[in-house]
From TrEMBL:
Bias kind Polar residues: ranges: 10-20
Biological source species: Aspergillus mulundensis
BP terms from Gene Ontology: DNA synthesis involved in DNA repair; DNA-templated DNA replication
GO molecular-function terms, A-Z: DNA-directed DNA polymerase activity
One CC-aspect GO term: delta DNA polymerase complex
Domain of life: Eukaryota
InterPro entries named in the record: DNA_pol_delta_4
Region (Disordered): 1-52
Protein name: DNA polymerase delta subunit 4
Pfam families (alphabetical): DNA_pol_delta_4
Length: 192
């Protein structure tokens, strides 16, 4: 409940306990800094920094940054490809054998149940294949851990080893894909 107001009397004495805020130049508060305070000291510090960096270093950096062509894969893409290749070369486990037996019809049933859990149709996924829909759904399922910087197959195996019960249908789609194509999460491609 708010405090009762006083009526009448001197209003200045009613608020005398509260300090007055002043926004003038005299009340300016600044933080102490470790940087040089005078302009001449600042320019000397910048000049010494400029002398440490030679033109050769700058030209080398610029030439290195231009050497990456747009058609070549990004460093993150190469790392994910190597992870996926290492995962594919492992011997087949019990889960891999189960995943190999899953048919297209079972994949369609799985996707229909996953899609029915959501509120409505996904208009942005109209042009995607069934496999890509399943993989993107797996990418965005946060309960299996982060999907950026890790191959999909490695993420599935990590979630399985942590007893998070990832869907076997995702493993089936991943194992049926050729080579390392599609091993990088779609969101990972967007973020890099």
């Amino acid at each position: 409940m708010p405090p009762a107001r006083r009526r009448g009397g001197n209003t200045a004495s009613a608020r005398s306990n509260q300090p007055v805020l002043s926004f003038g130049a005299k009340s300016r508060v600044t933080k102490p800094s470790a940087a040089p305070s005078t302009p001449s000291e600042k320019t000397k510090a910048l000049e010494s920094l400029d002398s440490d960096i030679s033109d050769k270093d700058v030209s080398k950096y610029l030439s290195d940054s231009k050497s990456v062509e747009p058609g070549q894969p990004h460093v993150a893409e190469l790392a994910v490809r190597s992870q996926a290749k290492a995962e594919i070369e492992q011997p087949l486990s019990e889960e891999d054998k189960k995943a190999a037996k899953i048919t297209k019809k079972q994949l369609q049933q799985y996707w229909n149940t996953e899609e029915s859990k959501d509120r409505g149709p996904k208009v942005h996924q109209e042009g995607l294949s069934l496999d890509e829909k399943i993989l993107r759904h797996f990418d965005l399922s946060s309960q299996y851990g982060p999907c950026i910087g890790i191959a999909r197959l490695k993420r599935w195996r990590r979630a399985n080893s942590l007893k998070l019960n990832p869907p076997v249908e995702v493993l089936s789609v991943l194992l049926k894909q050729e080579g390392t194509a599609g091993q990088r999460a779609y969101i990972d491609e967007l973020m890099s």
